[in-house]
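User: Continuing from earlier, I have the next pair ready.

Assistant: Great, send them over.

User: Here they are, in order.

Assistant: Folding the first of the pair now:
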Amino acid sequence: MITKNIFKYLAASLVFCGFAAAFTSCSSEEDPFFTAGEGDEPRILNTNIPEGASGTPAVLMSIDRTQNFEFEVFVTPARYTTVTWFLDGDQIFEGNQIDMPLLAGDHILDIVATTTLGKTTSRTCQLIVRPVEGDPELASDAKSRWLTIGTTKTIKCKNVTSVSKVFIGKTEATNVSFANGKLTFTVPSMEEDNYMVTLEDGTGARYGCGWFTVSNEEYVDPGIKETVIWEGSVDINWGDSNVFLTPDEMAQVPVGAIVQLHYEMIDADYHALRVTNQDWSSDIVPQVDGLNDIPSPYEFTYTADHKAIADAKGMLVTGFGYKLTKVVVVEGAAPAETVLWEGGVDINWGDSNVFLSSEELAKVPVGATVQLHYEMIDAEYHSLRVTNQDWSSDIVPQVDGLNDIPSPYEFEFTAEHKAIADAKGMLITGFGYKLTKVVVVEAVAPAENTLWEGGVDINWGDSNVFVSVEDMAQVPVGATISLHYDMIDAEYHSLRVTNQDWSNDIVPQIDGLNDIPSPYDFTYTADHKAIADEKGMLVTGFGYKLTKITYTK
């Protein structure tokens, strides 16, 4: 039988090793697993652990959350070395072969080999665990994933029916609630850093929801550009002492920018501010009294009318009773919220509600977010409905349990909503709450960053554009990369995005580029980043002129 033959060969091998013991070990010098001694330096022998580049660990593997993470490490000296596995800094396993489930997220995996004499070596890599369809999903924009310590955070959340606990790293958040697709909690006091956020539902199941930044500071949009156009220290006193900015200095201020006047109060009979032109003939900001009750900086939006005034005769900052310290221009800021209505109305169906006319709603663009701010009042129940003037077409069908939904209630203003409102306005009704404000927030286009700009006729290996590892390091996972191009006269038109030695494609060859409007856009994934972090990004192909490479976060 085959089994008996195997035992026979095994026995013969053992006998041979026994006779040879006086002369040599069964393991040859080519077997480092057993020949290395306790005092030797530890080594991880795997060739299937990729090396990172530019300080960024390479991706070891990408798996779905429903898959176990399975991997085996080979070390030397084998008899004297223990392997310990750390995920995001926390020990999760000890042993050479791991096989365990992990929470979804982009993790940092450290594999540490330690000998009995305390000598160590390690390998660090990324381990990507993808959420599966139906897993809880928190909003992924940078502002949503910024947690300011001590504040109440509200984040849009999908695929959740209940949330009982929120963990920021190992720290549990307080005051957790979930309603109407929004998760609300208080950010606890903790060290500033990046942490994985984990949700626990009513059944006790936990889900990883990615990385968040915890900071003592408020979020600042990276697309914002601040320019100081004047700085100093002037006690403002009408015509005797003020600050004048010439038309040339004001020429750099674009329409739509926010102008900030930074100031300190000084001892004076009163405190007033006025912004006008050089000969005081046209005001940009009419006189504002009670400046001592207005927190610095005083801000205003720089309109086309303001620009016409300043382009002709500059801008003069005057008034009385304050020290002007700085004038700043802020560009690219999220647009200021537009308040459509403000007051205090106890909502009670047809007896008491708030109506906004078609004319008032004409300024609300499709795609904007409408916010209804409210407070609960003592009532048998709490419901909200948004409809039109004659209640014939709903914009927001009746929502019950409003007391469980954090204010403001938000909805996206769609083309259908606009058609309803343009015809018969918008009526906010329901029962059991006080409506205090209706606000419109317009979507902001993400800031565009230029990686490369020029004019290169692309021709495979003879003429292409290479973006280095260092330049690609600034591009975050999830960004949109745009390749801007013009067609040139050629037999065909193809595009390919690969790495420096053409060994790993980021965008496999695309033919018929002449039928694809410029720019060509693609989402920069973790796999793409692993390729570019190691060997950069090369844009090649045939039959087009590459003019610019940009990315938006």
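And the other member of the pair:
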Amino acid sequence: MMDNKKGRAFHFLLSAHLAAAGILIAGAAQATDVGAQFVHYATAENIVFDRTAFSHPLTDGNPHAIVHVTQNWNPPGSSGTYNVSPIGVWYVDSEWTIASQYWSEIPVGAAFNVWVPPVDASTFVHTANVVNTNNNWTYIDYPLTNNNPDALLRVTHNWNPGGGNGLTHDRVVGVFYSSNASKWAIFNQDLSAMPIGVSFNVTVLPNEPTVSVHTATPANTIGNWTSIDHPLTNNNPDAIVSITQNWNPGGILLGTYNDHPIGVWYHNGISRWAIFNQDIAAMPEGASFNVSAPSLESAEFVHLADTVNTTAWATYVDHPLSNDNPHALLFVTQNWNPGGAGGVFNDHSIGVWYSDGLSRWTVVNQDSADIPVGASFNVSIPAVDASTFVHTASDGNTTGNSTIIDNPETNGNPDAIVHVTQNRNPSGVGGVINDHSIGVWYSVGAGKWAIFNQDIAAMPEGASFNVSIPAVDASTIVHTASVGSISGNSTVFHHPHSDGNPDAIVWVTQNWNPGGSGGVYNNHEIGVWYTGNDWSVFNQDDTPMPVGASFNITVVDPPFFSDGFESGDTSGWSVTTP
């Protein structure tokens, strides 16, 4: 684990170095911190009858965390599992759990979209008391929502905020705006009295394209479900969708009740997400929901370590999707000669580390060796969805030099493409160093993929990895080194996006046994380099590439416009034509 004094000293050293170079960190583009979002799957290992425990650096050991959950029937568009009960969150044994409000058993396979928003003025805990509670509702008295009928709220029952004693609440809830009180309220859909002492996590959603109100209409509703038509979720089975029932959006006079446990599911037939009643009851026309989903923004680029952005063993990445965003997931592959020019070796295990002092992600050498000026890295910052997540080695998932990934997208799928990058401190919390060359392998016995240390060294508990499961499509291949492809320490691969293209951006992860068969170790740090006609995977230490070594490879073309205007924003152009 990184020594805190060492970390603070490095923050100071790099900050001073940047200041001396005239770099003003506070003025750089920054991402909007939306917190951590991920999918939690209930398994036999994490279920204790009516609750399922999840682990995350922002919530472990933190009874004051704000957590929101939405039931997800079929991430990512696969078969689904019903859980016919309202849900809430409960802090027990130093971790947060998702609990069935009916005290019914959580079924194995139940899935939940989890959102841990940033702790700021938009998040708080509301507790019903004798002053703010009347009949079946409890008024929220908060500056961001008072006199604001257009506010959109996300609400989750919290059994015991702060980790103390609490109250269960076996009712379906929603929010409504009282024009008389000029306040929003949380209410019981079945009109039963709101109990004094019950608490709720509340987040006031931002006024952004990621947030909307969905209303069930005859055109979008069939049986117990209503389909969502939104560009962030259409054709996106990996979207992480969060919902709260809203009785009267905009403070309209009359609203619609829907006293049923709800969830979301992806309809493959129409390529859209839908909100559904878990008990199969018909979805009433007019039922409305506050809906949020992460942005689809992503980025792929080459990062060059230079004298300004590099100090000692770290080189900081300056990008708006990762700046001031400790929850960003970065995937990194060393690139010896981007654009086919230059060439700098960095024969060290690499990872990523978030610097709180700089509010930046950095690429680091795990052994703390200096990163050489001129070293280059292909960097991917994918959109937040169910196909990207952090895996942390624990006592329950680690054996010897391997830690097992338990995810429906990869379980039982030996042909999955898996990319991993070591993450010293996911969400900017904690930090365990694993200074070893890594790869992935498929355990036929377990029917699961695992991350492993190539040198057979024990995998340390707490080591974390960013994991991406890209779709198996035209951008992905598995390359196996053969006598014909190997030249010394490298193996050439062919791909239509990279052949003859020195500007292609390539990500590589070592794959011990593609398809679950065979298995060849390559205990060396790798990178990619452009040979003049093709790209190759190479061993940084110049060791010969072994026949049979395999690699998961994803290739993307660089943005069409290198000046950043590919988004369609022409405001910075000197001349435009109709």
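Worth noting for the second one:
The chain has three domains: 4-31+297-381, 36-119+211-231+259-285, 389-556. The CA atoms of residues 139 and 174 lie 12 Å apart.
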